[in-house]
Specification:
Layout: E1 3-8, H1 14-28, E2 32-37, E3 51-57, H2 69-75, E4 84-91, H3 101-112, E5 116-117, E6 122-125, H4 130-146
Parallel strand pairs: 1-2, 1-3, 3-4, 4-5, 4-6
Helix pairs in contact: 1-4
């Protein structure tokens, strides 16, 4: 059975909740899943994954969460060829063009590892509402279609 691994960072609990929704939706789709907070793992966490998922918030002026910086930097030297990925971001639209910037930074970094993006990036303002949960279900369907 395919293994999906989720790494997340959460300051207010919104992104943690989003990662929990992803975890349960992936399990319901029939896949094995492991979910870890980013400060608990290194980038080699993805070594045995079939699909890699990042759930991140954007901090301040479009910055990566502090706790995700080392993980992000380690991606630069990682080869994830043959793996698929998707990214989910939470943010605040008050920041305009910087809204969910960290999610887009992760997409770019993961593409450089050789992994294939197979799910549209989901952007969620603050916490997940009903339409966001539907977008997360579609995200998981897109992952599942490639697994």
């Amino acid at each position: 059975m395919a293994l999906v691994k989720i790494v997340y960072a959460s300051m207010t609990g919104n992104t943690e909740e989003i990662s929990e929704i992803l975890e349960s939706t992936i399990q319901e789709a029939g896949f094995d899943v492991e979910r870890e907070e980013c400060s608990e793992v290194e980038v080699d966490f993805f070594d045995d994954a079939d699909a890699c998922v990042i759930a991140t918030y954007t901090y301040g002026d479009g910055e990566l969460p502090f706790e995700f910086e080392d993980f992000f930097d380690e991606l630069e030297d990682k080869d994830l060829s043959g793996k698929i990925f998707g990214v989910v971001g939470s943010g605040d639209k008050e920041y305009g063009d910087l809204y969910c910037k960290s999610a887009h930074d992760f997409v770019e970094a993961l593409e450089k590892t050789g992994a294939e993006k197979v799910a549209e990036t989901v952007e969620i303002e603050n916490n997940a509402e009903e339409e966001d949960i539907e977008a997360l279900k579609k995200f998981v369907q897109q992952l599942a279609a490639k697994l």
